[in-house]
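To whoever is on call:

I kicked off a structure prediction for a single chain this morning and the downstream step that reads the tokens threw a length-mismatch warning. I double-checked the sequence; it's 381 residues and nothing unusual in it as far as I can see. Pasting both halves so you can look.
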Amino acid sequence: MKIAVNTRFLLSGQLEGFGWYTHEIVSRMVRNHPDDEFFFFFDRPYDSRFVYGPNVTPLVLFPPARHPFLFEWWFEWSVPRALNRCGADLFFSPDSMCSLRTDVPTIMTCHDLVPLHFPEQVERRHRAYLQRKLPQWFERADHLLTVSGFVKDDMVKTCGVSPDKITAVYNGCRDDFRPLSAAKIGEIRGKYSSGQPYFFYAGAIHPRKNVHRLIEAFDRFRLDTGAGCKLLLAGRFAWQTGEIRQAWESARFRDDIVFLGYVGAEELPLLTGAALASTYVSLSEGFGLPLAEAMACDVPVVTSDASCLPEVAGGAALLVNPFEPDSIADGLKNIYGNEKLRESLVARGRVRREEFSWDKAAEVIWDAGYRIKGRCGQRVM
């Protein structure tokens, strides 16, 4: 079978949400199915490390697509032409977009419906385009994938998509997220937090991620407990960060709130594994990968009681109200002061993390593509 893949987010040194998802899924497909041909569609020069095997042909399609006008050009003109040239049997688009102008059987992953529910949290230049296009992409795709039951139900209720057209399969967690020894924890804390225990957040520094309320809650936690903890925040500053900067500037303990910027693939598992707890109190998520990463590291989790996060936590995290800094602060206090609670959450996390497997996700997606290709009357694999 000839499979074309949208690999726009495989960016060297910049792998984040869509990029990691694409990497983990597609690298396994290439390795597990060496007799099939893959065509990777990049929108800029690529790193050869993302060409996962001899059965991959990388193609750079013009133009670099990071703006609605260029999205339209790339997906509706460049991609259909490339699909025809390749003789593709299947097109897989893992970044919540696809092409409307191709007859090639298409499967698309939708990670969330943020543009529809939280339009103010989407960049203005992208907002109207995504709101208009999402329903069209849902209708065009031959099959849709998503990363939690919550998002599947949301797609059915909000957009009227048939549940039979959607397969929900959890994300996995990279193998390098694992428990650390006491000595390694001490080393990482010495490097990043002056030897002090710390709460850890990993993700975009953006209002939807609720970082400003996490900062407020941490400040209240420090004021109430006098604990010598720090808050480490790993991630790029996105747009609309005024609330976050204001929260930090207003914090009494801002010297103990550390913005690390983008953290690379080698350091992120270490920072996660050495944390007192992972804090992920986002307002809306499709999956919430930091939960799985913390569970893999035997680190307790404080997370929101909103969107998909209770589902993904599966009883293995402390849930708080993300709209109430006092609720988040209480969660931090409970985690800090209750060793038995931390041990209980870690034990439950060891069970829950078995549900998160990139190998399983890759095969579920592969099987979906196999079925769609067959149903659309393409060549037999």
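Update from on-call: the warning came from a stale cache, not from the record. Cleared it. Sanity check on the structure: The chain has two domains: 2-172+358-375, 182-355.
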